[in-house]
Amino acid sequence: xxxxxxxxxxxxxxxxxxxxxxxxxxxxxxxxxxxxxxxxxxxxxxxxxxxxxxxxxxxxxxxxxxxxxxxxxxxxxxxxxxxxxxxxxxxxxxxxxxxxxxxxxxxxxxxxxxxxxxxxxxxxxxxxxxxxxxxxxxxxxxxxxxxxxxxxxxxxxxxxx
Length: 161
Hints:
This protein is α/β, with parallel strands linked by helices. The chain is about 40% helix and about 30% strand. The chain has a four-stranded antiparallel β-sheet with strand order 1-2-7-8, with no helix packed on it. A four-stranded parallel β-sheet has the order 5-4-3-6, sandwiched between helices. A hairpin with a 2-residue loop joins β7 (about 145-155) and β8. Mean pLDDT is about 75; it is low at about 135-140.
């Protein structure tokens, strides 16, 4: 089996489990609550940060896209995805699947293909866009890259943010 087929098989076998893992986080990640002191509670709420910038390299583009896009979607952010020009056919297939997925609202995943890196540099330079580079979102804490946490203190009769 040649290298291209091995890489394609790796991507096809890896992606479904990653998608299932992050889909399960959507149902379990709600924030944290604890009693900070007698009669006083503390609650941490998680909210989407807005837009996530995802720069995907040409090696294993589907797996590395899913490793960053899945946690961003699970966190509730919209995404701008830069795919490498060397994988244009794969990019077209992936974005075709996104556009045909009825449960994925229009504008949640936005993508472009490039070879020169200008768009990738623009995403990385944007201060208000958390970026996942090289598909490097970490497993258990991957959603943390795409959410803001707000601590709320609750005492009888008051809520402080």
